[in-house]
Amino acid sequence: MTLSSRQRVLQMIEKGEADCIPVGPFMYDIAAVVSGVALRDFYLDAESMVRAQLCLQETVGQDVICIGADNFYIAEGFGCESSRGDDELPSLVSPALSAIEDVFGLEVPDPTTAGRMPLMLEAIGLLRKAVGDEIAIRAPGTGPFALASYFVGSQEWLLDVAVSEAGMDHAKDAAVHHALGLATDALIEFGKACFDAGADLIQCGDSLASCNVISPRTYERYAWPYQKRIFAAWREHGIKAGLLHICGDSSKVLELYGATGAGLIELDSALDLAGASARLGDVTVVGNVDTVTELLQATSAQSEAAARRCISQTGGRHLILGSGCLVPRYTPVENVRSLVSVGHSWRP
User: Fold this and answer.
1) Does this model's pTM top 0.85?
2) What pLDDT tens digit does each residue of the chain (348 aa) get?
3) How far apart are CA 10 and CA 24, in angstroms?
4) Ramachandran category for residue 202: left, alpha or beta (phi over 0 → left; psi -120 to 50 → alpha)
């Protein structure tokens, strides 16, 4: 029986197999290029974002449509200021705080009114109305460690965490953990709202917690417990497809990723997919095509070979074929289409 894209994705997550391999590269602003939608409109206007993503899906035929643009839509709700450019996605201009010790004055923002969270919720609702039950929708979602870093800026945050972990400043330690708690609660509420608006895959994207940035010990103490809280709260809300995305080489903490309670884990190209998927067992993985060498700079034949590698390394089970990270804006569309062709031609 041929499944719809949405059925294919959800069945792969639940049962580890489907009629073919669902394909869901992590794609944001490439949709603006393919559709001709102005980038500024793409990240500031829900209708423009949906129009761009529908155009991309019609062009490529993937099973998952991603809503999102940058990392600061929740942070803005806490008082952070981000840029507004015509040619670049928003970046952090001004943190919410001058020092982490001031974090006790922040409150968890309402996802329906604060920052650009309402824009994302509106886009999810518009997209669900447009595609009905046919295509899976992936929501955005900044992880707790990364989101807390925007309160003071990522460099200052990493220094604060280091001081906290070293036990050098008890006041700073309390502030760091309070910040992580606020970020966790904000992502829990935003994820619930995304699910209620119609999204299927609810994201916890915490790439600053990568072991390319922090140590495995720091990850286990300052990121993992909060990620666990998020996925537990989402599951209680009925969300089965919580997605953990962390860039880089996660080989030293992979079992911890599996123990977060995430329903699926997006694996970067830095990992050997065969070994990683074996270690994660029945947890569905997303990936792990290299976004530069196997997509942006590749020929369509090389992209096709990368797709076949991913399927071969997992046996086609517990796999959503996708990119290890965000697909670059100017990636040739035919390369992404190659992933879809390979995934959809596979049969169990």
Assistant:
1) yes
2) 799 999 999 999 999 999 999 999 999 999 999 999 999 999 999 999 999 999 999 999 999 999 999 999 999 999 999 999 999 999 999 999 999 999 999 999 999 999 999 999 999 999 999 999 999 999 999 999 999 999 999 999 999 999 999 999 999 999 999 999 999 999 999 999 999 999 999 999 999 999 999 999 999 999 999 999 999 999 999 999 999 999 999 999 999 999 999 999 999 999 999 999 999 999 999 999 999 999 999 999 999 999 999 999 999 999 999 999 999 999 999 999 999 999 999 998
3) 12
4) beta
State the Cα–Cα distance between residues 41 and 86, nearest whole angstrom: 9
User: Where are the strands (E) in the chain, listed by range?
Assistant: 64-66, 81-82, 92-94, 136-138, 202-205, 242-245, 264-267, 284-289, 319-323
Query: At 120, which helix (H) or strand (E)?
Result: helix 117-131
| Integer Cα distance of 328 and 25 in angstroms | 11
Amino acid at the residue 262 = A
For residue 288, whether the previous peptide bond is cis, meaning omega lies within 30 degrees of 0, is: yes
- Delimit the domains of the chain by residue range: 7-345
> 7-345: which CATH number, 3.40.910.10, 3.40.50.970, 3.30.70.20, 3.20.20.210?
3.20.20.210
What tokens were used for 106? 């922040």
Contact 139, 194 (CB under 8 A): yes
Q: Where are the alpha helices (DSSP H) in 150-299?
A: 154-165, 170-197, 216-222, 224-236, 254-258, 273-280
Under DSSP, the state recorded for 107 is -
**Which are the contacts of 285, defined by CB distance < 8 A and separation ≥ 6?**
264, 265, 266, 267, 273, 276, 277, 314, 318, 319, 320
